[in-house]
Specification:
Layout lengths: L2 H16 L22 H12 L5 H18 L5 H20 L8 H11 L1
């Protein structure tokens, strides 16, 4: 168990000892955990923290934008689809280009700045 996990476990145990975790909604029910078996064990806590803070890596943010553009395109009348289709194609090109080059999230200026603001 790494240091972060040990600290978390100790704080959870302290809360249990003080009775702070009694009578909570869902008590006694199984947890719905997401499968994170594909994520290296040493990165799971960091990924979980970023996800809970609402951060997405740039490629996943781009995928979300593509999905939203696809949904918008399906909802628009045929006469209004040309601009939405052009935006979707542009987003798809950006996504394809991002897959060709490896990405270090800490080098992505906007992502790094948002992360520092949230953590600061």
């Amino acid at each position: 168990m790494n240091l972060v996990d040990q600290i978390a476990e100790a704080r959870i145990q302290q809360a249990i000892d003080r009775g702070e975790l009694r009578n909570l909604p869902g008590e006694g029910q199984p947890l719905r955990l997401e499968d994170d078996s594909a994520i290296p064990e040493e990165l799971r806590v960091a990924y979980r923290l970023l996800k809970n803070a609402g951060f997405l890596p740039p490629e996943l943010e781009l995928r979300r934008e593509v999905r939203e553009a696809e949904q918008l395109l399906r909802q628009l009348p045929e006469s209004d689809r040309s601009r939405a289709r052009a935006r979707l194609e542009w987003l798809q090109l950006r996504l394809a280009a991002s897959r060709r080059r490896p990405s270090n999230l800490l080098l992505e200026d906007q992502y790094r700045q948002q992360l520092l603001e949230r953590l600061g």
